[in-house]
């Protein structure tokens, strides 16, 4: 099924983080004039747990499904400002990640919570967000903070690849009134090996200065190529480890969103998150938007 750029899908498991995801999805949908869908996947474990809570009036699988639909409708009704009243709600039966991947294939943006209702399972197997991100072809927004206002301060990771440009383009559409800082972390190729080979500090400083000049020139060319209101864009080019530079800049600016482009690859490559994405997801204090190369926007 081709993706619908006007559909924002929020995955809900009724945890606090999932509630944040639903609220953020509603804010984004309202700002974009998009449709909103709240989806809950009922697997065997969640069905069994809910059936136990409903005893002695469990009434079988139909009763469980009715209860989940009522809970999902109730969550939609809780979304501030009435943004959730027009939301479509849907309960899917199946395994969580495959079912969400199928549902996500029709959406322009998928919003999930950073953690689920079972933190021990997340520690052992990875959160639903991480497992989904490893395989999802659609842009995925991982919600961490309560969604009270639209995004105002955004940090976008830039490595001059097509996937980082796709992420920036989507960020500008999803946060049309935000200040966006383009962050590039540069380094000297094989710097550690050069040190071991006896290259002195002065020569390494010269290599770094050249790498910085090249990065600044490419950043200026990128900024000049961006359409729309460029006055809300600024740039930061810093030497260092990319995820550490990105997280430090987000903390300094008190950003409410970090944007990362994810390289599309083979199935085996897609199953494992890149090191930058994984590091940022683990340590970011704000929401994180991950956009795969070639993914459309909401």
Characterize the structure shown.
- It contains twelve helices and ten strands.
- With 298 residues, the chain is α/β, with parallel strands linked by helices.
- The protein folds into two domains: 4-143, HUPs (Rossmann fold), CATH 3.40.50; 153-292, HUPs (Rossmann fold, 3-Layer(aba) Sandwich), CATH 3.40.50.
- It has a ten-stranded mixed beta sheet, sandwiched between helices.
- Helix 1 links the parallel strand 1 and strand 2 (35-42).
- Helix 2 packs across helix 3 (60-78) and helix 10 (242-253) runs parallel beside helix 12.
- The relative contact order is 0.15.
Q: Kindly give the count of domains.
A: 2
Series of H and E elements: EHEHHEHEHHEEHEHHEHEHHE
Low-confidence stretches: 117-125, 265-272
Under CATH, the topology of the largest domain can be stated as Rossmann fold
pLDDT averaged over residues? 82
Jot down its keywords.
298 residues, ten-stranded mixed β-sheet, Rossmann fold
Write the layout of secondary structure elements.
Layout: E1 4-11, H1 16-32, E2 35-42, H2 44-54, H3 60-78, E3 88-93, H4 96-104, E4 107-113, H5 119-125, H6 128-133, E5 140-143, E6 153-157, H7 162-174, E7 179-186, H8 191-196, H9 201-225, E8 233-239, H10 242-253, E9 257-262, H11 267-270, H12 275-283, E10 287-292
Parallel strand pairs: 1-2, 1-4, 2-3, 4-5, 6-7, 6-9, 7-8, 9-10
Antiparallel strand pairs: 5-10
């Amino acid at each position: 099924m081709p993706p619908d750029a006007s559909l924002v899908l929020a995955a809900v498991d009724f945890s606090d983080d999932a509630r944040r995801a639903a609220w953020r999805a509603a804010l984004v949908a309202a700002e974009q004039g998009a449709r909103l869908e709240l989806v809950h996947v009922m697997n065997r474990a969640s069905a069994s747990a809910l059936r136990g809570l409903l005893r002695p009036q469990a009434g079988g699988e139909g009763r469980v499904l009715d209860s989940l639909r009522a809970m999902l409708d109730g969550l939609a009704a809780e979304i501030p400002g009435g943004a959730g009243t027009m939301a479509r709600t849907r309960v899917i039966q199946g395994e969580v990640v495959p079912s969400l991947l199928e549902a996500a294939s029709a959406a322009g943006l998928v919003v999930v919570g950073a953690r689920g209702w079972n933190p021990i399972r997340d520690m052992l197997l990875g959160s639903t967000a991480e497992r989904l991100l490893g395989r999802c072809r659609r842009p995925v927004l991982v919600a961490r903070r309560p969604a009270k206002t639209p995004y105002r301060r955004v940090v976008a990771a830039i490595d001059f690849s097509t996937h980082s440009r796709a992420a920036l383009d989507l960020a500008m559409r999803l946060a049309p009134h935000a200040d966006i800082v383009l962050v590039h972390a540069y380094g000297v190729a094989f710097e550690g090996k050069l040190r071991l080979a006896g290259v002195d500090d002065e020569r390494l400083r010269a290599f770094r200065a050249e790498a910085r000049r090249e990065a600044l020139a490419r950043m200026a060319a990128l900024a000049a190529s961006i359409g729309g209101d460029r006055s809300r864009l600024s740039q930061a080019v810093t030497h260092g480890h990319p995820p550490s530079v990105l997280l430090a800049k987000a903390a300094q600016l008190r950003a409410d969103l970090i944007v990362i482009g994810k390289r599309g690859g083979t199935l085996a490559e897609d199953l494992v998150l890149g090191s930058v994405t994984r590091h940022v997801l683990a340590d970011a204090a704000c929401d994180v938007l991950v956009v795969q190369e070639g993914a459309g926007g909401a």
